[in-house]
Structures are given as C-alpha cells and as structure tokens.
Amino acid sequence: MTSFFAFLHHIAAFALVAALVLELVAIKDELSVRNARRLLIADTVYGASATLVLIVGLLRVFYFEKGASYYFHSAPFIAKLATFGLVALLSAYPTLTFLSWRARLKRGEAPSLAPSRLRAIRAIVHLELAGIAVIILCAALMARGVGYFGA
Description:
The chain is built from six helices and no strands. It is an all-alpha fold.
C-alpha cells in the first residue's frame, strides 16, 4: 500500500507541474475564448492536483511512511510544507481571475485583462513554479535525512 500511495503522490505532483506549465504557456498567448477556456481547465486541474498532493502526502506522513514524528522533526519537510502553503496562497489570485471569466466564456466572449493584471498573473505563475522547485529540493533533502533534528 505504501508504494501505491507514493505512486499516487508522484502522479498528482507531475499533473500539478504540467497544469502549471500549461498555464504559463497559455497566459503568454492572446486571451481568446479558446485560450481562456484552456487556462480555466488547466487551473482546475492544477487545483485538483494540488489537493490530491496534499491529501495523499498527509496520508503518507501519518499512515504509510516513517511517521509524523519523523517528518515534523525534519527541517526540509517543514520548509516543504510551508512552501506548499505559500504556493497555494499565491495561486488564489490567478484562480479567482480565471473563475471570473466563466460568465463571459459561456456567452462566447473573450475576457479582457489590463496589461498590469496580466503581468501580475504571469509573475505569480513564475513564482509558483519557483516554489515547486524549492519543494522538489526539500523532498530530495528529506529523502537523504538532511536537516533531521530528532532524537
């Protein structure tokens, strides 16, 4: 069962990264109806994947791996969890923006965004990707026992 949950965790993490990269690529294009729908779908997949990563990850921590005591005595794990939370907070702005387009998209109208807002969303997506790189670094450090301060 442990291997299956590790597999689920990794599949969800790869889906999360793929969806975020798709957002990054799509946000560079013109905001047509088709492209805006693509962004909305990618963001939905991103959110669902992030939720699955969190749930499966916590199940692994508490039930399937070394135990919560080990993980909560690991500096990289704490940093990983904090970075995940920060990335989640950052993702709220683009998500709320994309969700606000639904009514227009149902009418077949392309959304309009001020250039400053578009730049802000692009910057946030870049920051989210940087945060994911930090999460991956923390996972590698954690796997090697670096930063463990338990007894």
